[in-house]
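TL;DR need structure tokens for one chain.
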Amino acid sequence: MSLNLTMDNVNELFDSYKDKLSDKNDALEAMMMALKEETMATTLALSTRIKELEGELALCRAAIENFFCAKGIMDDTSKVNTASLFLIDIALLWWRGRTTDKRQGEIGTWQEFQCELKGQFYPEFAEEEA
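>> reply
TL;DR here they are.
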């Protein structure tokens, strides 16, 4: 085999691999774009849902505060005890565990109750991501 023929074969092989790699790169770029679009759509949907839930939470807080006023509940202990009666599902399980765990201190104020509840169930980075 001559040197020129060998060089031609090497160049053909190189071009073949280059074309294959280019095709794979194009496919990867298309997949990345699709993932980016899907991520953006999901982020938008989650952001919208977070805003909806924040609105519901504000209504719930207002309703609880109105209930407290209507029933004349002013002291923190009564507020915490009354609000805990309305917990359901996972929040109720959390509260039962929270109140029976002797390693954790007692929740003494209405503010502490709200902060702990929010800390337990509010997504840590929800505001940053929204």
